[in-house]
Design brief:
- By secondary structure, the protein is of the alpha/beta class.
- The protein folds into two domains: 194 residues, NAD(P)-binding Rossmann-like Domain (Rossmann fold, 3-Layer(aba) Sandwich), CATH 3.40.50.720; 97 residues, UDP-galactose 4-epimerase, domain 1 (Alpha-Beta Complex).
- The chain is 45% helix and 17% strand.
- It has twelve helices and 14 strands.
- The strands form four sheets. It has a seven-stranded parallel sheet with strand order 3-2-1-4-5-7-11, sandwiched between helices. Strands 8-10-12 form a three-stranded mixed sheet.
- It is globular.
- The relative contact order is 0.14.
- The mean pLDDT is 97.
- The chain binds serine.
- Serine binds next to loops.
Length: 320
């Protein structure tokens, strides 16, 4: 029987991945953990939940032993804009947390999923159709921890044969748990603002292109890569994936097909803009498609439609 531990399980990706994994493997087989209990009672009470600081080897090892964990999704990390507020703390959480999980996976023979990001790229990276293997040299502290993390995961695989696997996620658009402190967060906030206020003040300039993926595709990718037969892998960690690339002006235009009076204005946040300018405009994700069958179901049009009707429906029911 599969036994899965998720760290950062109450975050944007964790909360939806947790629901998908519970549905797939049963509620008791998926152990959620986070540094605090958060506000989502359904998630915390729907199955095993542990308060764990991923930097504590003792806490992690105790949980792995108690629940006989064989697979870990290590999602706890600080996102890019938030990380710039306190680089030392971000290094501590993102790197020392990862090292604890790698050691725990090594000593307890667990498979380990670690998300990387478009943030692992930098200004010298080719911006258009960014290849899988290319120059990275990120300039944000978040990106530095992500690219170092990719290398560490490769190291643990080659040196200790730990079954590490990972994806470089683009911005993830979703409507259950809001992201916190990311550069791509605008692409989520804009939908809530459009539905509820008809107006959004965007922190990035209108022509800033970034890659994105809709949550159902992101969750499916995380499940599928861990279930894939690794004999077809040429890469292991940090597979580029993408589903769409757009800028705020484009997204606003798509939203106007449903909310014609929607207005977007700009108040640039220099921290987020600098980070976004250092990231690719659009990735090439051939390796993921060939090596483990990645594909996306949601395009920009389909995602926009689904986000708007879901948020409208929740607003009507008062469950936002
Ligand atoms: N969504 C993340 C961020 O903006 C990037 O992986 O920080």
């Amino acid at each position: 029987m599969k036994r899965i531990l998720i760290t950062g399980a109450l975050g944007q990706l964790g909360s939806e991945l947790a629901l998908a994994l519970r549905q797939r493997y049963g509620n008791d087989s998926v152990i959620l953990s986070d540094i605090r209990e958060g506000i989502n009672r359904d998630l915390v009470e729907g199955g095993p939940f542990e308060l764990i600081d991923c930097r504590s080897y003792e806490q992690v090892a105790r949980c792995i032993t108690n629940y006989r964990i064989d697979t870990i999704y290590h999602l706890a990390a600080l996102l890019s804009a938030k990380a710039e507020e306190d680089p030392m703390y971000s290094w501590d959480v993102n790197m020392n947390g990862l090292l604890v999980m790698l050691e725990a996976a090594r000593l307890h023979r667990c498979a380990l999923f670690v998300p990387s990001s478009i943030g692992s790229f930098g200004p010298e990276t080719p911006k258009q159709y960014t290849p899988q293997d290319t120059i990275q040299r990120p300039t944000s502290i978040y990106g530095i921890t992500k690219s170092a993390g990719e290398l560490l995961c490769d190291y643990y695989h080659h040196r200790y044969d730990v079954d590490t696997r990972g994806i470089r996620f683009p911005g993830i658009i979703s409507n259950l748990t809001p992201p916190g402190g990311g550069t791509t967060d605008y692409a989520v906030e804009i939908f809530y603002a459009a539905v509820n206020q008809g107006h959004y003040v965007c922190p990035l300039s209108g022509d800033t292109f970034l890659d994105m993926v809709y949550m159902p595709d992101a969750v499916r990718a995380a499940v599928e890569i861990m279930e894939a037969d690794p004999s077809t892998f040429r890469h292991r960690n940090a597979f580029n994936i993408t589903a769409m690339s757009f800028c705020p002006e484009d997204l606003a235009a798509y939203i106007r097909t449903y909310i014609p009076d929607f207005e977007i204005t700009y108040h640039i946040d220099p921290v987020r803009q600098r980070i976004a300018d250092s990231w690719p405009n659009c990735l090439e994700d051939y390796a993921a498609r060939v090596e483990w069958g990645w594909h996306h179901d949601y395009s920009l049009e389909e995602m926009t439609y689904d986000m708007i009707i879901t948020i409208q429906e929740r607003t009507r029911r008062g469950t936002l």
